[in-house]
Amino acid sequence: MTAELVRGQNHPLTRTRLEVRVSAGGRIVVAATLCDASGRVLDTGGVAHPGAPSLPGLETSPGAAADHRLALDLEALRDSVHRVHLLLALPTSGDRPAGFGALPAPFTSLVGPDGTELVSYTVTGLGAESAVVALEIYRRGDAWKVRAVGQGHAGGLVDLLGDQGLPRAAELAAAIDEAVARREARPTGGTRVAGVPAERSATADGVTTAGTGGAGSPPVPRSTAPPARNDGPIDYTHRDRAPAAPAASAAPVDLPGPAASPPPRSAPAAPAEAAAPAEAAGRAPVAGDAAGWSLDERLYNQVWGMFEDLARSVSAYRSAVDFAESRREQELDRALADPRARIGGATDAARESARAKYVSLVDRARAVLDRDLAQLTAESAVVETALPAPFARWDNAVWQAYRAPEEAPMALRLGDLHLPEADRLRIPMLVRLPLERGLWVDSGHPEGVPASSADGDALRRLALETAVAHAARMLAAHPPGQLTLHVVDAAGAGTNALAPLLDSGVLAAPPARGARGVNQTLGHLTRRVDLVQMALRNQAVDALPDDLDTARQLLILHDFPHGFDDRAVTRLRYLADEGPEVGVHLLMVADREDAAAYGPLLDPLWRSLLRLTPVPDDHLADPWVGHAWTYEPLLPPSGGRVLHRVLAEVAAARRARGG
Q1: In sequence order, which residues have a C-beta less than 8 Å from that of residue 216 and are 6 or more positions away?
Q2: What is the reported pLDDT for 245?
């Protein structure tokens, strides 16, 4: 279960022996600083870097590379160490970009001794920074937490180390550069990894690494390792999917924006002949044509592979169009700058020539994109019909034959995603279960669009109906009795939209009303979080009270902040931060403007929730190229009874099992 962090978010660590993994789209240097409680570096010996890669409890990579792995033992650190900062920096030697903004967003993760990915963070939004604090691992009492930082300096390691209180920062930065340069000067031709055949090894930056793929090798998670950026254009194809035709012009691009989807977990690859994409063999697309232990896992990985394919294909097309426009403008500027071109119609000829070249380049790029879209559309049609209920649309026939499952699925579909260049192609938006973040259905009117009060009322109703559909899908995805649903409707304004839940009897109790109901419900869930946290911390789960509901809890919170006082707001923030780790999840339906009176106090709350909308809205971005993806919610067919039938089946299964 991976916690995907966004900038500023923190997460508790349950392991003390960790492997820190860093993946970037080009050569970077990785270092780590050991700091006191105030965040200042203890001394010059408190920095692990390529020139001194080993410290007690910490070992870093010895050179510059696109991928790094660091070993961290928190129990072996000195008692004076309260914070560990993971630093990423661009090397000063060689042909390097001016800042991290010219590279794909670096991906960082913390992995346990058993290989389980615990926390991940994609460092997005970088520009001119050449040295960045990616992660901060810090003490909180007797426990450790990790925070996603993502802050840096354009002045490189000198400024960053100086900012952390190191008195001789320039000397240490120079020593790091010298160590990297020395390592890159070593001959690398004969270096090999033991046990790896020579034809499957690739030497990069003085370190030989085994190639990926093939039978018996775990595939690299698609969404955790952006394509490497070399001197040539970016390769937008996947390592483990059919290669796409080259784009007309694929200029390097920045990759800003928060991740829109979780990275698929690694799984042993199928035999090579079975894992090869169907398209590569000239056959029709096949559902489940991806790595994974089960069909659901293969479908999950295939869906997000399609998402990445579309992201990169569209990025290549946009880059080609940008290049064509730039070339056209340059040719026109040159023609107009020559006085001789103004005589005899030469300017018109130059303008027509530039336009013709532009049209030709754009048409070629569009032809490549259309070919990619045709392949993805065919694959989508096959995959969509094969999806299990938690992944499927409400109009899929699988819901007509729904029966309560025996175990929870690995993921849940929350909507569809699409891009303007491929408006007819919809990619399912799947999120891993259990949810690592709460959900927020934004009932506010889209920014910049005027609306009447009637429009606002309709949007609020639709937002609650969307939340009910999400809740019904979550209930249907869990075995009977493993998810308990609560509703807070302080003003009682959501009775009609909540009718499917009320009529079916799937609620744990009637919707809470008024300030008293708000505080009682939040107090009940806050107590549960406290008890479970204490039990886990003291390894005394058996000592939990008999009346404690051990099922996961989902709270639909409608019309926030109506009925909330300061105490209720504090409890809500606590549940948003601490609840997901112990099985308490929020599904808020709210307009942020309604809570504007709280000012920046609630900013961490909004950031901690995954924002969804009841109408199509382009507010999600991918971690590779930062496309603005249009999100569309999933609602049951108008006038249909599928939602009522599914909820009735959930209630019947719960009664049959004594729930």
Answers
A1: 268, 269
A2: 34
Question: Cβ contacts of residue 147 below 8 Å, gap of 6+?
Answer: 5, 8, 9, 10, 11, 135, 136, 137, 138
E strand spans, 36-185 = 47-48, 54-55, 58-59, 65-73, 83-89, 107-111, 117-122, 131-140, 143-153
Task: Retrieve residue 100's tokens.
Answer: 């991290």
Report the run of H or E that residue 612 belongs to, with start and end: strand 609-612
Structure tokens at 13: 């660590």
Question: Which two tokens mark 210?
Answer: 């085994």
Mean pLDDT calculated for residue range 255-263: 32
Element housing 302 (H / E): helix 295-337
Exposure of 599 by Cβ count < 10 A (0-12 exposed, 13-18 middle, 19+ buried)?
A: exposed
- How far is Cα 415 from Cα 175, in angstroms, rounded to an integer? 51
> What pLDDT is stored for residue 634 in this prediction?
92
251 vs 480: CA distance, rounded Å: 52
Q: What is the pLDDT of residue 2?
A: 76
Nearest to 300 by CA among 387, 238, 225: 387
CB 84 within 8 A of CB 58: yes
Query: Cα angle vertex 255, ends 297, 577, to 5°?
Result: 65
CA distance 103 to 122: 12
Report the mean per-residue pLDDT for the chain.
81
Q: List CB contacts of 628: < 8 A, sequence separation 6 or more.
A: 618, 619, 620, 621
In the chain, what percentage of residues exceed pLDDT 70? 82
Q: What span, in angstroms and rounded, lies between the C-alpha atoms of 279 and 291?
A: 16
Identify the pLDDT of residue 611.
Answer: 95
Q: List all residues 6 or more positions away from 137 whose beta carbon is below 8 Å from its beta carbon.
A: 13, 72, 74, 83, 84, 86, 144, 145, 146, 147
The C-alpha angle 601, 604, 605, rounded to 5 degrees, equals 90
Burial class (CB in 10 A: 0-12, 13-18, 19+), 232: exposed
Cis peptide bond N-terminal to 561, omega within 30: yes
Q: Does the model's pTM come out above 0.70?
A: no
Q: Which two tokens stand for residue 381?
A: 């049609």
Residue 344 has a pLDDT of 62
Helices 169-185 and 156-163: crossing angle in degrees, nearest 10, is 140
* pLDDT per position as a tens digit, 328-340: 888 888 777 777 6
Which two structure tokens, joined as six digits, stand for 283? Answer: 């056959």
Q: Which residue has the tokens 């035999």?
A: 271
Q: Check: CB of residue 245 under 8 Å from CB of residue 235.
A: no
Q: Can you give the three-state secondary structure of 525-560, one letter per residue? A: HHHHHHHHHHHHHCCCHHHCCCCCCCCEEEEEEEEE
Residue 473's pLDDT band (boundaries 50, 70, 90)?
A: very high
pLDDT tens digits along 37-52: 888 898 778 899 988 8
Report the distance separating Cα 239 and Cα 219, nearest Å.
Answer: 9
